[in-house]
Amino acid sequence: MASRDTSSAGAMAPVLVAGAILLLVVHGLGRFIYTPLLPYLVADGQLTAAGGAAVATWNYLGYLVGAMFAIRWHRVDQIRRLLPLALGVHVLTTLLMTQTDRLGLISAIRMLNGIANGVVFVQVPALILEWLVLHRRAHRSGLVYLGVGLGLLLSSALVAGSADRLQGAARWWPAALLSVPLAWWGVARLIRLELPHPAGRDGTPVTTPLLDRASVPLFLSYAGAGLGYILPMTFLPLLARQTLPAGHWLLDGTWLIVALCTLPAPWLWNRLGAGLGDLPALRLNFLVQLLGVLAAVLWSGPPGLVLCAVLVGGTFLGTVLLTQRIGRALHPHQGPRLSAAMVALYGFTQMAGPWLTKQWLEAGGTLAAAFGIGVAALAFGLAFAFWVPRQPVA
User: Fold this and answer.
1) Cα Rg for the chain, rounded, in angstroms?
2) Is the dihedral of CA 316, 243, 155, 13 positive or negative?
3) CA-CA-CA-CA torsion sign (285, 26, 189, 197)
4) Which of 86, 136, 376, 387 sits 20 to 30 Å CA-CA off 113?
5) CA nearest 305: which of 239, 249, 248, 353?
6) Which residues cross the membrane (predicted)?
7) The whole model's pTM is what?
8) How far is residue 225's CA from residue 382's CA, in Å, rounded to a whole number?
9) What does the pLDDT look like over 337-349, one tens digit per residue?
């Protein structure tokens, strides 16, 4: 059986690799490839900046719905059924993006893609974390998020490499074609994992309230993180295009910097969490990320863009992995359900970010000033991180 031979480090590698690949697929080739694509789609005339923000909002609404599905269907047997379905939806919707230039249809497709993304982004790390806890390797859980960094790097390369050969809807073809084999291999590996559902003496699942004095500050802190990071992660390349001259290397370079800094971030924040404790590391993470978004507000030229790309790219995955581990320590009997609830809240605030940006732009505001929303949100999240009680990580 798959769970019988997994206590060695060598046997853990395929599980972590499979999880990383699935996050690469849904986040790198599904969600965040839209960020470097957006300036080209605007230049092609397929979208306007406000229309692009609207499409992003629908995608993030889908992400919220997907996380809500994951709250409802959080048991291991349910994950085995829902995870392949969600990946199938991702592949199908990415293929459909290659076939239309209609804004309404694009928004609907991106919403469905967001639903799949939300399900996968909750269920894959939660499933692997429970499996690692069973084998006393929870400290390695953050390594699965290396797939997000690799996905960002790959998305940057795919967009830049095909920029001169593709146009409009056809720009989605590289992501669509690559998603198929990667999704199939990753899900085939993970659905074989066996995990017992936590149960009490009478055999019924053990549950505790999701919201209590310990977890509410963590939920609120995570909400601030979701709104704070999503603005640069959606609009940083577009901000570069609006503020820099044609041909400047940062027009494509900002997203490449984000991707390169995201790549080592899970390892870095894993180490900092082990050395400082997950909660002190989370507070440091918020502070660094806040400074990154603030840099884009204060210096919209190259220095601010580079600082924002480096500091946000190097921190946002740390926020996710540290918060997930802290949350599981607070409620160890319902890790996947709590993870889904947190991602749902995260998804709601991410949805609010592009919507608020759209309202700001339509009212005559600048994109650089809109990043101030992210600064305020991260300050909010940092404040509530100091209200979370210290807990040992299981």
Assistant:
1) 20
2) negative
3) positive
4) 376
5) 239
6) 12-34, 46-70, 82-99, 111-134, 143-160, 219-240, 246-269, 304-323, 335-356, 368-388
7) 0.78
8) 8
9) 777 788 788 778 8
